[in-house]
Specification:
single chain, 161 residues, alpha/beta, Rossmann fold, globular
């Protein structure tokens, strides 16, 4: 089975995860970040990640969208992505936010046709093999996603429905 196309925000954690995925030989990687800076462009080039200009373009290219943004931007990111997500999409919210904010994010994504899965990143994302950071995933389809991601070198943390 081919590796899924993955999209993500491209801050520090997102870029480290993308670099690890690239090293693991994953398929298409695309990133969108509201801050279009030289540093982001350089990290994308180094990780061989396609930078896109909109959330719509990210959704069009990817079946799994990792939300790896600052806590203060997590709800905004969900709202900006939701209108572009279809039934074949999985939105993986990896942000460290309060339970009430996580529920609000879930509500926003669940108004789209996409599957919402929450994730808790359990350690700092390492510079090398960033995808190896332990994560706990939860939600319908979490076990299936965890298995899919394990094939890309993600730490096989626990998954709950």
């Amino acid at each position: 089975m081919p590796a899924p196309a993955i999209g993500l925000g491209f801050g520090e954690a997102g870029s480290r995860i993308a670099s690890g995925l690239r090293a693991a030989g994953t398929g298409e990687l695309a990133a969108y970040d509201v801050a279009d800076t030289d540093a982001i462009r350089q990290r994308a080039a180094a990780a061989q990640v396609t930078l896109v200009k909109t959330n719509a373009e990210l959704a069009a290219r990817c079946s799994i969208v990792f939300s790896v943004v600052t806590a203060s931007s997590a709800l905004d990111a969900a709202q900006q992505n939701a209108g572009h997500l279809l039934a074949g999409h999985t939105y993986l919210d990896c942000n460290s936010v309060s339970p009430s904010t996580k529920r609000r994010i879930a509500g926003v994504i669940q108004c789209s046709a996409a599957r919402f899965i929450e994730a808790a990143i359990m350690a700092p994302v390492p510079k090398h093999r960033g995808q190896s950071v332990p994560m706990l995933v939860n939600g319908p389809g979490a076990a299936e996603l965890a298995s899919q991601l394990a094939s890309l070198g993600f730490s096989n943390g626990s998954a709950r429905r």
